[in-house]
């Protein structure tokens, strides 16, 4: 800090001198060289993570696991969330946002986001939503009675707005495309020949 203060005083002195008509050709070069040296010194100080400069590192805050110490308010919200997702199947709504789900459950959006990420362990709302949608898709795709239903029709019925996000979410969950997964599932459980299509 003392070096920077000295540099600032020197620059001010040169500028005052120039204002009074005292001018030398080397002032600009000397100022640029001093600024360069100060930049290098500052970079060396700040790239070296010394505790005298930055303080002692603290351990990161670890969120409690989803199964421990759920208070009454969170338990009530989680029950309401489970009821909305399992019984009313709100995940089927196309374009469902975390704000809309929070209104459905009756809590502020930030509370629901904290519970989905911290308590339930999902990386984001889309991952939480897709778990429900992909589970239903797997049931539909493995049902021999629905073998003629297109993958796109299933995606739209389960709340996806287009086939692309459905394919990506399905592949992320299963490692296969919906078509590949269906072929494998129906190969293991061939349709009953007595059932007419």
Description:
- The chain is built from 10 helices and no strands.
- The protein has 3 domains: 2-39, no CATH class; 66-121, no CATH class; 127-197, Homeodomain-like (Arc Repressor Mutant, subunit A, Orthogonal Bundle).
- The chain is elongated and about 95 Å long.
- Helix 5 crosses helix 6 (109-119) and helix 7 packs across helix 9 (163-174).
- With 197 residues, it is mostly helical.
- The termini are far apart.
How would you summarize what this structure contains?
The protein has helices spanning 2-19, 26-47, 51-54, 72-87, 98-105, 109-119, 125-141, 151-157, 163-174, 178-188.
Structural features:
197 residues, mainly alpha, Arc Repressor Mutant, subunit A, 3 domains, 10 helices, 64% helix, elongated
Mean of residue pLDDT? 79
- How many domain regions? 3
Order of helices and strands: HHHHHHHHHH
Low-confidence stretches: 50-67, 190-197
Give me the secondary-structure category: mainly alpha
Radius of gyration: 31 Å
Shape: elongated
- Please tell me the CATH architecture of the largest domain by its name: Orthogonal Bundle
Approximate helicity band = 55-70%
What do we call the CATH topology of the largest domain? Answer: Arc Repressor Mutant, subunit A
Question: What is the CATH C level class of the largest domain, in words?
Answer: Mainly Alpha
DSSP summary: helix tally: 10
CATH superfamily of the largest domain: Homeodomain-like
